[in-house]
Amino acid sequence: MRRLSSAVFRVAAAFLVATITVCGAASISQAQDKVRIAFLVKNLGNRFFDAVRDGGTEAAKELGNVEIIYVGPTSATAEGQIEIINSLMAQRVNAIAISANDTNALIPATKRAMDRGIKVVSFDSAIASEGRIIQVDPSETKLIGAKQVQMMADAMGGEGEFAILSAASTMTNQNNWIAAMKEELKDPKYAKMKLVTTAYGDDQSDKSYRETLGLFKSYPNLKGIISPTSIGIVAAAKAVTDQNLVGKVYVTGLGLPSEMKAAVEAGATKSFAIWNPIDLGYTTTQIAYNLIKGTVKGVPGDEVPAGRMGKVKVGPDGVVVMAEPFTFDKSNVAEYAKVF
Ligand code: RAM
């Protein structure tokens, strides 16, 4: 009983801090028609997802009478997300947009939600196709993988040892991007670069920092780290700076300009990449809304009206692919740091 009530309290507390009502004072009938879209993110306290939420809020305002519920576990685990899915079902939300901490573990919970008429989409980090209707990929997986290897090659002069510092080993997006990096590395132009290991910081700053220190210890000749996560890349660059390794070890990967400005200015990072997380949240909200309203079913070939993003096309396996990632370096990081 004590365990149950503390679990309920934790979930309730998460909702308290995270619920945002986008519609203003609504009449009773408006309140009944209100569409409620929950963003279930990997973890709270991650500014990448805060920017996704801001895009969701923007779309909700445009669509009118839409409520965005922003929620996630404190640490990025599947168990935490399952607990929240159950709670969202009890609240009878209309849609859940999930960035999954695990490709398969959420499927039974999301299937139950879909059986009850809740539209489940995943974005950023996918749920396997049987557990969602649509997956919104921020960009082509192959491109994201290749881009990071290219930036690493450029920073470390095309030769030497480098490591990957990922998020959690169960996360779909990081695993797909790492697979794409390994494909890119097969190109003979990278023959002098050696991937020594992949470490996991679980999208926690402190663990990512400690894992980076561990890499320095285990691989004294390390020249680079690719971190395909906005949490990991900041921690890795900080470890490089703190250990006076600027100019010896280069960090690249995926990060937010607002969080990476210091690393670029310190010289720990030459360049890094990311897409626009605001657009990702905006588009995902538009898609969820159209599924709820029944304007589309979300099957391959569908074209979903998505406000300022135009029409987005649903591809094979229910996957929507957005734009190319942007690259940031000394020339533009300060400017974009003001945006996300
Ligand atoms: C972290 C998360 C997210 C990923 C970004 C780049 O915030 O792991 O899923 O897309 O990094």
From TrEMBL:
The UniProt keywords, alphabetically, are:
Signal
- Location (main, coarse): periplasm
Q: Could you tell me one molecular function GO term of this UniProt entry?
A: carbohydrate binding
Q: Which Pfam families match?
A: Peripla_BP_4 (PF13407)
Q: Where's the Periplasmic binding protein domain?
A: 37-294
GO biological-process terms attached to the record: rhamnose transmembrane transport
> Where found?
Periplasm
Q: Signal peptide location in the record?
A: 1-31
Matching SUPFAM superfamilies, A to Z? Periplasmic binding protein-like I
> Which protein family is named in the record?
Belongs to the bacterial solute-binding protein 2 family.
Question: Which PANTHER family does the record associate with it?
Answer: ABC-TYPE SUGAR TRANSPORT SYSTEM PERIPLASMIC COMPONENT-LIKE PROTEIN (PTHR30036:SF8), D-XYLOSE-BINDING PERIPLASMIC PROTEIN (PTHR30036)
Could you tell me what this protein is called? Sugar ABC transporter substrate-binding protein
Its source organism is Skermanella aerolata
Lineage here is:
Bacteria, Pseudomonadati, Pseudomonadota, Alphaproteobacteria, Rhodospirillales
